[in-house]
Specification:
Number of domains: 1
Largest sheet: 3 strands, antiparallel
Number of strands: 3
Structural class: mainly alpha
Keywords: Membrane, Transmembrane, Transmembrane helix
Strand content: 5-15%
Distance between the termini: 26 Å
């Protein structure tokens, strides 16, 4: 038995590389999630509404723009998921199962962070602001995601990219560059 094989077995049995790999995946997902929340807010144009008798109503253009927040959320999440899955498969593939497990947790965290950062950066609820506003005041709409399915985009694309990369790129290339 060669000395390198013993070192490899000891390294694998200690669990340190697996923990470090999982931590790296989680850190990457956390950073990407927060950055995507900022990007989602930055590229989104809020719909505009008008105040009348303490109520907020979308104007004609605002009605057309009402769903752009969800659309941009899906676009940003899809691109981020594909990149996360690809990077994790190529750069963090010492143990595929560790990467898969950490990515499952990480993309859920990334999706939540993306949503929360976008909400925190976005304007306040115009329905609440309208109560104190004068008739005719124009207020921006609130950034929001319609439905539950947009929250599955980042996890779905990340796992698809991971699986496709694992299935198509030989392990030797993934682990040794």
């Amino acid at each position: 038995m060669r000395v390198g094989a013993v070192d490899d077995r000891l390294e694998r049995s200690s669990g340190r590389p697996a923990v470090a790999q999982a931590a790296a995946v989680l850190a990457l997902c956390t950073a990407i999630g927060a950055g995507c929340g900022w990007l989602w807010f930055t590229i989104w144009d809020p719909p505009v509404g008008v105040v009348f008798e303490g109520m907020w109503y979308l104007d004609e253009q605002g009605l057309r723009d009402e769903f752009t927040a969800t659309g941009w959320f899906v676009v940003v999440a899809a691109v981020a998921g594909l990149l996360l899955g690809l990077v994790c498969a190529l750069a963090l593939s010492r143990s595929e199962l560790v990467t898969l497990g950490a990515l499952l947790v990480g993309v859920a965290l990334a999706t939540y962070l993306m949503w929360q950062v976008g909400l925190l950066l976005g304007p306040d609820d115009p329905r609440e602001l309208a109560k104190a506003a004068a008739d005719g005041d124009r207020l921006p709409g609130q950034i929001e995601v319609s439905g539950r399915s947009p929250f599955l985009v980042l996890p779905g694309t990340a796992l698809a990219a991971l699986a496709i990369t694992y299935a198509t790129v030989p392990r030797r290339i993934r682990t040794h560059g």
